Amino acid sequence: MHQVKKIGLDITGLVHAGKFTGVERVDAEFHRHFSKLIDPNKYELVPIYTVAGDIDFVKLHPKIALDQIISKPLSDISECEYIFLGFLNASIPFTRILELKKEKKVKVISLIHDIMPIKNPEWFLTPKTNLDSKFQHQSKNLFQLYLQMTLSVADIVIVTSHQVKSDIEKLGWKYSARIEVVPLGTFNKDKAEISIKTLDQLNCVYLSTIEPRKAHIQLIEAFEILWAKGSEIKLNIVGNIGWFVDDLIDLIQNHPEFNKRLNWHKGLSDEEINEMYSESQLAFAVSYDEGFGLNIEEALAQGLKVIARDIPVFRERNYSNLYFFEGGAQELSIKILEVLKLPTNYATWKEVRTLEDFAIDVIQLLDLL
Amino acid sequence: MTSFTPTQLKVNSSGISCERLDGEMVIISFQSGKYFNANGPAADVLFLLENRIDQSLWNEILTTQFNDFEASASNISEFLLKLISEKIVEETSESTFVPITLPEDYQRTKWIAPTLLVFDDLADLLLIDPIHDTSLDGWPIKKND
């Protein structure tokens, strides 16, 4: 008879998130599929929490409070045979984990979504530069610290694209962890009913947090070119405010087309996002860089065509309905008209990878440890 | 032939993570729980230690990169003593005389006495998500502080 092994999933980052977007949604959805798919005769999933004190469930985002792992009783890392570090959390007791690896042969799997804070620190928050302060480091330093510690304890590091694997390898650092590429997938594969409209009634959607690397300005400029030619195609920006975007927010809200052909939707629920997709024909993934770029799968799964920037991480996909553009706003505007005239392959949504597929692949890796 | 310490040194092989990025070395001691930061010339000295370059070659290597480098006024010995006291480096009998070039990952100008910044009270700061939770003044200033 096999002993059931405990897998401790670090929930600290999720508990402290205070919001439910991007990685929080991915984490919670992964937990849902992981719980459903894991063999209970082999593994028990338990939450581990690396901050002193109890979790204040009242303060949790309602959707995080419902997370299938968070709602279970907490375990100590010393009780676990496996530790899954799925969320950026620098408070993980790395030294203790290293000791447990020696004493109990504990195995550690870590998920790293990207290393952009050290690859492109200019996209993140301004460094503190006061040299009189004891703490003069940048976000980049803290991320480096986290990455070094994670690579020091992990047996397997899961990355979501070959691009991120290459980015880590290019650092030239020393680590014994095996880096495995496991692409993410969409949350929802219930294809929306796509409305058929004429070229002048079309809606386009860009779902993304508003931050500099997401290239909203270039997208708006591409639409300005189309609108100047008399096009009625609408651009719907869906996403909450990130950072370094005060000028962009001013540009959107004071744009002559604001609330006409240019719309901005904040704080939409999943249902409202699906409704937005069902009203749209074309979506965008125009970031200058991503660890993965999940909005591609999300839009394709809803039956939309997608125009993505021609960067290596997006090129790792091979879906019909996915088109690429190179260059600036002018080239993007040409590509928009070109793609909108192309027929939609309505079967594409069936091919799109899901987060259930991601969980299946993670379980396979676990079985290999 | 200059040597900065009586014996050759190397980066401690157990419980230390030492990685370089853009001319900056971040060192983590899993034993003491401290982390350290070494910039520019300090990172270059650590690079020589990591590669176990015999100290007799350091003067030549550093003079090539820093026009004003003078071994006697470099403060390298003091820096090495600090590294020893923090158990970041240890003695070794195996040094190498293989020629090596310092990484071209930052703009070198004048030699600055190497220093080691020591951080031992980061528990709370490490809870701050460096991407989403810091203010526009940057980490470690938290939003709404």
Number of spatially distinct domains of chain A? 2
Strand order, main sheet of chain A: write it out.
Answer: 2-1-3-4-5-6
Gyration radius from CA atoms of chain B, angstroms? 17 Å
**Radius of gyration of chain A, CA atoms, in whole angstroms:** 22 Å
Q: According to CATH, what is the topology of the largest domain in chain A? A: Rossmann fold
What is the H-and-E element order of chain A?
Answer: EHHEHEHEHHEHEEHEHEHEHEHEHHH
Average pLDDT rating of chain B = 84
How many strands, what sense, and barrel or not for the largest sheet of chain A? 6 strands, parallel
CATH superfamily membership of the largest domain in chain A: Glycogen Phosphorylase B
Gap between N and C termini of chain A:
19 Å
Polypeptide structure, described:
The complex is a heterodimer of chains A (369) and B (145). Chain A has helices spanning 12-15, 22-37, 62-65, 94-104, 116-119, 139-153, 162-170, 216-228, 246-253, 270-278, 295-301, 312-315, 329-341, 348-351, 355-368, and strands at 5-10, 43-48, 82-85, 107-112, 156-159, 178-181, 203-207, 234-238, 262-265, 282-285, 305-309, 322-325. With 369 residues, chain A is of the alpha/beta class. Chain A has two domains: 5-185 and 354-368, Rossmann fold (3-Layer(aba) Sandwich), CATH 3.40.50; 199-351, Glycogen Phosphorylase B (Rossmann fold). Chain A has a six-stranded parallel sheet with strand order 2-1-3-4-5-6, with helices on both faces. Chain A has a six-stranded parallel sheet with strand order 9-8-7-10-11-12, sandwiched between helices. Mean pLDDT of chain A is 88; it is low at 127-136. Chain B has one domain (9-127). Chain B has three helices and six strands. A four-stranded antiparallel sheet of chain B has the order 2-3-4-6. Chain B is globular and about 35 Å long. The A-B interface holds A 13, 16, 51, 88, 90-91, 94-95, 98, 117-118, 124-129, 134-146, 148-149, 151-152, 171, 173-174, 243 and B 15, 17, 19, 21, 24, 26, 28, 30-31, 33, 35, 37, 117, 119, 123, 125-131, 134-141.
